[in-house]
Amino acid sequence: MNKVLASAEEAVAVIPDGATIMMGGFGLCGIPEHLIAALQRRGTRNLTIVSNNAGVDDYGVGPLLRARQVRKMISTYVGENKEFERQFLQKEIEVDLVPQGTFSERMRAAGAGIPAFYTPTGYGTLIAEGKESRTFDGRDYVLELALHADFAFVKAWKGDAVGNLVYRRTARNFNPVMATAARFTIAEVEELVAPGEIDPHVVHTPGIYVKRLFRGSHYSKQIEKRTVRDG
Q1: For 42-55, what is each residue's pLDDT tens digit?
Q2: What are the angstrom distances between the C-alpha of 75 and each of 52, 54, 98, 155, 174?
């Protein structure tokens, strides 16, 4: 089955108002920037965004927040976006902050068909309030539920027409687990090749998890904070 679409606009046309969307990336590395931009242009609203971070004011998830398209954020770190901070302090957006390891494992569990798991992370803190806890071998654990989504937007370096994906370096962050945890995964790739051109041994996300993909171009690949040393 050829899963290739012509553009990001065609890809996001299936996203309804009120959808829950996972968006890959760590900081600004490996984010599905064309899908996010197309979603912002389309104006889809009341979204729940599952993302490691909230981007910055004018890039990543930032433009969606500025356009008031996001109802809720499920994230681990949100400290680089002033508009997010303003909405959060004014109680204009719902926020669920999750420890980063728990965040990743909740999505991995969803993809593996595991409904919940116990972790010591967060026990005895605000994170654990209202959650079941148990003691194993003298150590306390809190129960965390698997994290699912309606859609996942992932960014890969290379993909083929049936959806097999390869990520490059740090861009292999939350993209692989998100691809397995959503009911409908859409990938944008820098290079699109024919089936069989990717060595099966280097595939990070098998095509069975990917419903649609397209080839993007002119990637910005911004740096969240550039630090230089005087030479």
Answers
A1: 999 999 999 998 88
A2: 5, 7, 6, 18, 12
